[in-house]
Amino acid sequence: xxxxxxxxxxxxxxxxxxxxxxxxxxxxxxxxxxxxxxxxxxxxxxxxxxxxxxxxxxxxxxxxxxxxxxxxxxxxxxxxxxxxxxxxxxxxxxxxxxxxxxxxxxxxxxxxxxxxxxxxxxxxxxxxxxxxxxxxxxxxxxxxxxxxxxxxxxxxxxxxxxxxxxxxxxxxxxxxxxxxxxxxxxxxxxxxxxxxxxxxxxxxxxxxxxxxxxxxxxxxxxxxxxxxxxxxxxxxxxxxxxxxxxxxxxxxxxxxxxxxxxxxxxxxxxxxxxxxxxxxxxxxxxxxxxxxxxxxxxxxxxxxxxxxxxxxxxxxxxxxxxxxxxxxxxxxxxxxxxxxxxxxxxxxxxxxxxxxxxxxxxxxxxxxxxxxxxxxxxxxxxxxxxxxxxxxxxxxxxxxxxxxxxxxxxxxxxxxxxxxxxxxxxxxxxxxxxxxxxxxxxxxxxxxxxxxxxxxxxxxxxxxxxxxxxxxxxxxxxxxxxxxxxxxxxxxxxxxxxxxxxxxxxxxxxxxxxxxxxxxxxxxxxxxxxxxxxxxxxxxxxxxxxxxxxxxxxxxxxxxxxxxxxxxxxxxxxxxxxxxxxxxxxxxxxxxxxxxxxxxxx
Length: 602
Known about the structure:
The chain is of the alpha/beta class and 602 residues long. It has four domains: 12-106, GIY-YIG endonuclease, CATH 3.40.1440; 141-286, Rossmann fold; 289-332 and 390-524, P-loop containing nucleotide triphosphate hydrolases (Rossmann fold); 537-597, 2-Layer Sandwich (Alpha-Beta Plaits). The chain contains 18 helices and 28 strands. The protein has a seven-stranded parallel β-sheet with strand order 8-9-7-10-11-6-12, sandwiched between helices. α1 (83-95) crosses α2 and α13 packs parallel to α14. It is globular.
């Protein structure tokens, strides 16, 4: 009688499903037929409560959880995030009080990849540049590189790729595509995410590049990470979880023991707190900032309204090859009105909110949607005066002053009405039908729609004080970032940026005029420490039906609120203290609760 035959232990896969609202591990049996295809990060489909759902393998334990009856995996879809990304997703779920599945989905391809084609040869980096605008620091850690807004970052990226696989994140997909094209023309093997996810996962690229979600992109053998315009709000998710691509890359680089290069024209206090700020040649930096002209409006005649003589002259001088963009960060026609006879503010008769004037003869309430004729309920007058006009009305006024059509671009403008260079195709001062405008006006969205090839000679900010005095902790940084974006559009020193302001000594205005972003940082540290604002504290905004009871259960943190919007502000001395506190109380089922950790706009 021979020795007993010992059956091999069954292989177990621990899975996180993609079911919304569920953040629990489930154990499944791995069939022998697919055992070789299952590893940590593999995308699978599993049976759960009578249906098949998607998920990711997050562990391969030796034994299942106690009391579990194993069912086999229903299907192996293909390759998913790398094992280190799976671990990073667990950290991010703690860091932003979210579900792991949210980050695993962000890190996954758009379609299944059952097989990855291995590269035929080692990926080639782009040709090394003869010189870089900023010297690349060595060693792990976060290095903040100050690069002028109009300076081409391609040589910097190519130099960083010489040491091995490089992961690059930029604020927009359009900029990622442009940069990828330049690096390919320099001979590099580049994977542009999300389309080239499979090639990047197989290790066939020396540079992996994409927009915000590329922070979770595959890059086997990562040797360095680089993020362009690290200050940009587009790198922070608007809705919960309010994760930040720079923070994710910093943690990813720390775990891999490689450097993160955070490139920005205007370092913020948050970036300065991550690592030392490295600057390049001062002359080159000056050339990369536009000539900034400050129009001090403190002594102007109030009857001029929004339009200084300098701005009107600038708009009149526009030509098809030297176009002018005017920025007014107020959409609509008229944002605030008062009766021209009795001075009564135009308010909604239903909810009491301020009404706007989307068209002549009509008052509209943006709060409740109620419309009514333009008649004062107090005196019956039909004459109203605009206290705060929007872009549409401003376009009408500017067109009258300069005697030419004025195009209009806002966030709600149809992209089909602009050509590839951002030129308005059919939008003029009086609506559709006016084409080829040499002067264009719009909100901040105008700066993000245009590009440096659009032939801009100047950008003018009509009411820069609106940015400087915005009720946000990061107002100074955001104002300077807009100037940097404008400087890129006018191609640095060859163009001009005009700031109309009554605060010419504001740090952001002085920094822009001197092309020295360090001036905007001066004094912010002490102010933010005093007000207990980031980066010296970590904050979270909590709101929803369950917010009051839930924040009452938090321990070891400071809670204030609720504010007028019903939001509670939670503060702690650092992310470890705050995130541990947020992770302790259970989320109430079936009740609305939103937690935004370190939101972009506070």
